[in-house]
Design brief:
It is found in: Membrane. About 30% of the residues lie in helices and about 30% in strands. The protein is α+β, with helices and mostly antiparallel strands and about 550 residues long. β14 (about 335) and β15 (about 340-345) form a beta hairpin. The longest helix is centred in the N-terminal third of the chain and has 30 residues, at about 95-120. The protein starts with about 20 loop residues before the first helix and ends with a helix.
Length: about 550
């Protein structure tokens, strides 16, 4: 084929010249890339990957004490991680950027698809193809004698309508056919899933801004009041207002733990934790409740979760004249599965010198071959408390906050244990020992003094660590999550298909009925569906003909 006389071939060296996009063109290109479904899926995967560091290192929002401990255990690595906001992953700039880009991408994907889907729902089914024999499930039947083409197609249309198809009748070159389609619910479910995903993103962000989480450790018998100052640690959302706290009291009455004692392979493992609490909303009667693992108590717009537990030995320190200068139940932090626990006691006033004690508590004390103590069972079978005593400056007078679970011994003198040549103080519940250098005495109080000799059950109080969480969008998140699940299931299991029935007059005067289908995506039941339609339609024509009087058939 010859080219026009004015055709010009550019030299091969000229290359391809790209059009100049300009600022608006580049913005349009960027928007199209961002609102591409592949980009949305990539951002969703990236968001999941970005959330991984939040499970590898403690977060300030949920475990501030763990962050403090991490800094103490990793003094070189922790500051580096802090510079990249690894301890505040879910509120970090990079996580928020991915979150917002995903939100914009989903909105940009879903809105055009919704418009397209709406127009498709209002449009007629496509015209019948000329050659149905090329399509899946093609089958042909001869209609009963005397069947009218228009009546056959109309009966097929009604049959398809009752089966949930959208149907339309077409005429083409003397051939009458019906075109039907179904499965638009599949795309509807897909859109519902994505809209629900956007709803989850919005509500989670809203809940994070207006909610809060706080932690409080309670020893058996202690009471917590839901006020800002009563929390051990508190992490409010960006828009939280402390006037929104609903006042109530929560008292830890008892903490029960059930341990495995029959299966030797799992001996000593905890089976159940139950915190028996009493909740008293302001102006209302007190009511008993329980807090279990994955079974929070709900009150005052908050969920009270059980985080951890351990023992809280009650110690009383007296001066040389027998005057009590310190008495408290001190939570000891568990160090192993058998609850060998570490605790710190600080006595800043009342004695000749400030006193600090580092204690180890063994619920069931046993001795290793090396002579070291350890706990062989987590329950109170043979409890023992050992104390190493230090005197000097506790570092409290400088006004710098210090952890209640650590003792800075740099400016203190060790009086017992270690290289002092003085044995550590050892106490069983109810026993009293003299402090070194005539400083006074220390008593390990028995919380159950009326028990029989040798029965240590209940002799040491337990503590429970609670996480008190408020999220005003929990119901919304649940609703959107259910919608997302329903939409996903619908998009997965509803087939999208088109079906055609054509009436073709034959030269011998008979009427041939052709049936075929076309699937959009995988549809393993399409051929059987077409065959079933042909059978049902043929039976319908036979039954309608038999119901017609013989005079009318003539």
């Amino acid at each position: 084929m010859s080219r026009p006389s004015d055709h010009y071939d550019a030299p091969a060296s000229a290359g391809i010249v790209q059009p100049h996009l300009g600022f608006a063109g580049w913005l349009r290109w960027f928007w199209r890339q961002l609102t591409n479904m592949r980009t949305a899926l990539f951002l969703l995967l990236l968001l999941a990957i970005a959330a991984v560091p939040g499970s590898l290192v403690p977060q300030r929002s949920s475990d501030p004490n763990g962050v403090t401990q991490y800094f103490a255990d990793n003094p070189d690595l922790a500051p580096l991680l802090d510079t990249v906001q690894a301890f505040d992953v879910y509120s970090s700039a990079w996580f928020s950027a991915i979150y917002l880009l995903l939100f914009i991408s989903l909105i940009g994907c879903v809105i055009p698809r919704t418009k397209h889907h709406y127009l498709a729902l209002r449009a007629k089914p496509p015209r019948t193809p000329a050659r149905l024999s090329r399509l899946a499930g093609f089958t042909a039947r001869i209609a009963p004698a005397g069947t009218d083409a228009q009546a056959a197609v109309e009966s097929a249309r009604r049959l398809l309508k009752t089966s949930g198809y959208r149907a339309a009748v077409f005429e083409n070159r003397g051939e009458t056919s019906v075109s039907a389609e179904r499965g638009y619910l599949r795309e509807t479910g897909n859109l519902v899933f994505h809209f629900a995903l956007v709803g989850i993103l919005i509500t989670v962000g809203f809940g994070g801004g207006f909610g809060f989480s706080g932690q409080r450790v309670l020893v058996e018998g202690q009471t917590f009041v839901n006020t800002l100052l009563a929390y051990d640690s508190f992490n409010p959302g960006r828009f939280f207002n402390d006037t929104s706290l609903t006042p109530y009291k929560l008292t830890l009455d008892n903490f029960d733990v059930t341990y495995e004692e029959e299966n030797l392979k799992a001996y000593g493992q905890p089976i159940d934790f139950t915190a028996e609490v009493t909740i008293t909303p302001r102006g209302e009667a007190a009511e008993a409740s329980q807090v279990k693992v994955n079974g929070p108590a709900r009150t005052g717009g908050t969920d009270v979760y059980l985080l951890g537990n351990g023992y809280a030995p009650t110690l009383t320190v007296k001066d040389p004249n027998g005057v009590v200068v310190f008495t408290d139940s001190v939570p000891f932090l568990p160090q192993d599965a058998n609850l060998t626990s570490l605790g710190v006691i600080k006595v800043p006033d009342g004695l000749a010198e400030q006193l600090g004690m580092i204690g180890f508590f063994y619920p069931t004390q046993a001795t290793a071959d090396s002579g070291a103590f350890f706990s062989s069972f987590p329950d109170l079978e043979y409890p023992l408390l050992t104390l190493n005593v230090y005197s000097g400056d506790l570092g409290l007078d400088a006004g710098v906050p210090t952890s209640v679970y650590s003792l800075d011994i740099d400016k203190m003198t060790q009086l017992t244990g270690g290289k002092t040549g003085v044995e550590s103080i050892e106490l069983k519940p109810g026993e009293t020992r003299e402090l070194p250098n005539g400083l006074g005495s220390v008593t390990f109080d028995d919380a159950n003094p009326g028990a029989q000799n040798g029965d240590f059950s209940g002799s040491v109080l337990r503590f429970a660590s609670f996480d008190i969480h408020h999220d005003p969008t929990q119901l919304w998140v649940l609703s959107f999550a259910v919608l997302a699940l329903l939409g996903l299931l619908t998009s997965l299991f509803v087939p999208r298909r088109r079906v055609w029935v054509k009436a073709v007059p034959e030269q011998d005067g008979s009427l041939r009925l052709e049936y075929a289908g076309l699937a959009r995506g995988e549809d393993p039941t399409l051929e059987s569906a077409v065959s079933d339609l042909a059978d049902r339609h043929t039976d319908l024509l036979l039954s309608s003909q038999s119901a017609t009087p013989a005079s009318e058939q003539k």
